[in-house]
Amino acid sequence: MKKHLSVLLVLACIFSLSSYSQESSVFLKAGVNLANISINNDGQTDNAKMLTSFHAGLQGDLVVCPFLAIQPGLFFTGKGTKVQSGTAGSDGYYRAVLNPYYIELPINVVVKIPVGKDARFFAGAGPYVAMGIAGKRTLDYQALGIAYHREDNITFSNDDPTTKGEEGSGMGILKRFDYGVNGTAGFEGKSILLSVNYGLGLAKLQSGTNSGTDNNNKHRVLSFTIGFRL
Length: 230
Description:
Shape: globular
Largest sheet: 8 strands, antiparallel, barrel
Oligomer: single chain
């Protein structure tokens, strides 16, 4: 049955291309990230720890047929989380922020459905890989009427992802390489695109930990994007 469906899909693409004029293109995209990190073995997050960040980059739109496209991308994207308690300016106030930045390469397979003359609804999914390149850890707290502030650059491990071991791991060091899956949906016009994306990290954030043991300590990123066709 699956084989027959695959053949029908290929034939439909070939037939429809004869009357389809859209060419492959590139989008310039940017938007807001609502980033978090899972806090238990089931991969759940605490909404109070959500951190607002951003992303920007380029996305290809490689047309396979009128209703199917492959969309590789290259993005600079912020992830992370925050912990906060108490009231700013009062004793007992505490706020810690982890905000790493990555170069991320997603590849989505997207189905497109016409909803107007030049408009299409789309939805799809695919894998991503990312490499940490920068970021900050900040800590603010107040005790005995004195406010304290500390800010440090994030340190990434120099791990070689092609080897079994992890080089450069240590306490307080983040894994440089992240990977996972993401889903996307939105609307695309002749020159503009609006979408929502969810990235589900599969690699543990903390250096020296095993990704396969559970789903704790992994990136979760909800993104809202606007794109312009170049």
